[in-house]
Amino acid sequence: MTTGIHGTPQGEAPVPLSVLDLATVGAGSTAADALRTGVRIAQLAESRGFHRYWVAEHHSMPGVASSSPAVILAHLAAHTSRIRLGSGGVMLPNHAPLVIAEQFGTLEALAPGRVDLGLGRAPGTDGATAAALRRTDRLNEGADDFPEQLAELTRFLDDDFPDGHPYARIHAVPGPVQATSPGGVQSADRPSIWLLGSSGFSARLAGVLGLPFAFAHHFSAQNTIPALDLYRESFRPSAVLSAPYALIGVSALAADDEREARRQVLTGALSMVRLRTGRPGLVPTPEEAEAYDYSPMEREFVDSWLKNVVHGTPDEVRTGLDDLQKRTGADELMITANAHGGEARVRSYELVADAYRLPKA
Q: Confidence class of residue 82 from pLDDT cuts 50, 70 and 90?
């Protein structure tokens, strides 16, 4: 049985609010600093009524320390008690389905009833790194086989391969097989499967399978509404959901004044400039981002990028998030606050929580 897909809006928020953490590493800080900040944000989110906290799989990016979501989630499980924890996402073609089932079965044992397994079909990195991860240079094969990989992973999680299947005698442990062993007792819950996407492929597949869908609005805003429409049009009720449920990831950062918010989000924009031009690095400081000599093409990219980042004072961010939710009809907003320093990120989530008058534990 899966649980925890539907959240409950808190305070004055129109829909449940959640957190997407990229574990960003700023210039002058370490991965350890980024991961400590993640614990602070998860604990803050739990205390203020955010519904879930996800981490995303990325590789070979110096400014992103979330290459191992399952490891990070295990750490967060030890430092929280109620908030849902999950991957946003695990890139399924990078891994054997059995390995993912074992990892997330272990997480479910550590944090019963509060684990989400969000799955993507992109590599979360460049082609060469994807080849190193997969031990093959046939990179399209993994993406093309995504529905089959998903079906295999689901069967491992449910321990229900049919008789005669080559994997019928293979069991993901921890998992349901323990309940069928003599004297066995097993949790009734299993990780909730979500499909992630930035285009139409996963939107349609999530709809056909009756699964919840998470769309990456924060880096593919032009595709948000078409993908959500496709998801809703394709949706078929399932044992998991009777109606569509879609969240969108949105880049949003609040600060005590508008200028400071602009300074902070500019660091993320410069990081994206460098990533898109093959120069990934640590997240620059606000001073470096302001002083950087942008070419006309880079300036055009930054201006376009920042149009889709909700930023400003707490009231401005609330208004921007409310408008986005109304425009898309999203059932949940998952906020990622990208900035150079951990303090700015923690402060942003505090201000958003205050703007919506979320409860204080």
A: very high
Contact between 13 and 330 (Cβ < 8 Å): no
Whole-angstrom Cα distance, residue 102 to residue 91? 15
What whole-number distance in Å separates Cα of residue 117 and Cα of residue 63? Answer: 24
Q: Would you state the structure tokens that stand for residue 23, as one six-digit string?
A: 């574990």
Is 92 exposed, middle or buried, given 0-12, 13-18 or 19+ CB atoms closer than 10 A? buried
Range of lowest pLDDT (123-127, 216-220, 309-313): 123-127
Judge if the upstream peptide bond of residue 284 is cis by omega within 30 degrees of 0.
Answer: no
Which residue, 160, 163, 182, 186, is CA-closest to 171?
Answer: 160
In contact, 48 and 360? CB cutoff 8 Å: yes
- 166: tokens are 């080559």
Residue closest to 37 by CA, chosen among 353, 348, 355: 348
- DSSP, residue by residue, 295-333: -HHHHHHHHHHHHTSEEESHHHHHHHHHHHHHHH--SEE
Q: Which two three-digit tokens encode residue 211? A: 């699964």
- In this predicted structure, the answer to whether residue 88 has a pLDDT above a threshold of 90 is yes
Angstrom distance (rounded) from CA 213 to CA 179: 30
Tell me which H or E stretch contains 55: strand 52-55
Q: How far apart are the first and last CA of the chain?
A: 29
Hey, CA dihedral for 192, 211, 318, 282, is it positive or negative? positive
One-letter amino acid at 256 equals D
> Which pair of structure tokens corresponds to residue 315?
């009231």
Pairing of strands 332-336, 17-21: parallel
Q: Length of the chain, please?
A: 361
Cα 218 to Cα 198: distance, rounded to the nearest angstrom: 9
Per-residue pLDDT band at 353 (split at 50, 70, 90)? very high
Instruction: Quickly tell me which residue has 């069928």 as its tokens.
Output: 180
Task: Please tell me the distance from the alpha carbon of residue 284 to that of residue 274, in angstroms, as a whole number.
Answer: 10
Contact 42, 356 (CB under 8 A): no
Give me 237's structure tokens.
Answer: 């009720």
Give the C-alpha separation, 197 to 180, whole Å. 36
Cα 342 from chain centre: 18
